[in-house]
Amino acid sequence: MKQLLTLLFLVEIMAGQATAQQAATIPNWQVARFGIAAGGDIDMPHHLDHGYLLSTAENVDFDASDLPFSEGELTKMNCDNGTFRLGLSFSPLRSPNTEWQFSLLSIDGRIDHVHYEMGTEGASDWQYLDVSATNKETAVEAVFLMRDQTKHLNFSGGLGTNVGYSHGGQVRVQGILLDDVISDNPATGQEFDLTYQQRDGINQRLFLQAGMGIRFLKRMEFGFEFRKGLGYRASFGGPTHFTILKRSLGFSLRCTLF
Predict the structure, then answer these.
(1) Which of 180, 200, 207, 242 is 20 to 30 Å from the Cα of 93, by its Cα?
(2) Of 132, 105, 102, 140, which is closest to residue 116 (Cα–Cα)?
């Protein structure tokens, strides 16, 4: 506890020095706050299916043109993204209740996943197909916020965008099929597990953001953030697909500088 209080005290000293320095270098602007935020997103490609995920992979030799599954056999879908933000905010001196928030955004371990299934597990006619894509994203983000502050509470809302580079991805295809695409004998199911490298790409989103913060220890602020919006993913040499940011939740810890 003593070490934590010492750290917070040092942060306050650094914050005061930063405020004094930036006043001389950025006329009419002041650094409002800086800090970190962590959370999770559900960012889903529109009409997510196995065909889209396979089209983002390189050198695919799996023939998905004649699979027995229809849209009705899509039994599971998952689009989870863990997020981490490192941010710095600026506020114009003439409008202290407005703020520009800039962040470096890291999405580590994004997964897009679909699962198709027919028949009863363990039965002779049981078939399934499981396709998942995992990758990482590094992005920059800018948000314009309007803030309403009381002594201990801050409420904010605004509009933002981010653009990122996705990399280090893999597409994995698993399943059991009775189809002769996989086996020469259609009556015999064959299990398979294939992994392909995913193409790198560009991602962008436009979103609405709302949040609430609680001040403590004079300058520290613990906050909650919510985002919802639309975007796209463009794979290099692959498809461009619209996305829906269904939900983005995060918790933040920031040091306020005024």
Answers:
(1) 207
(2) 132
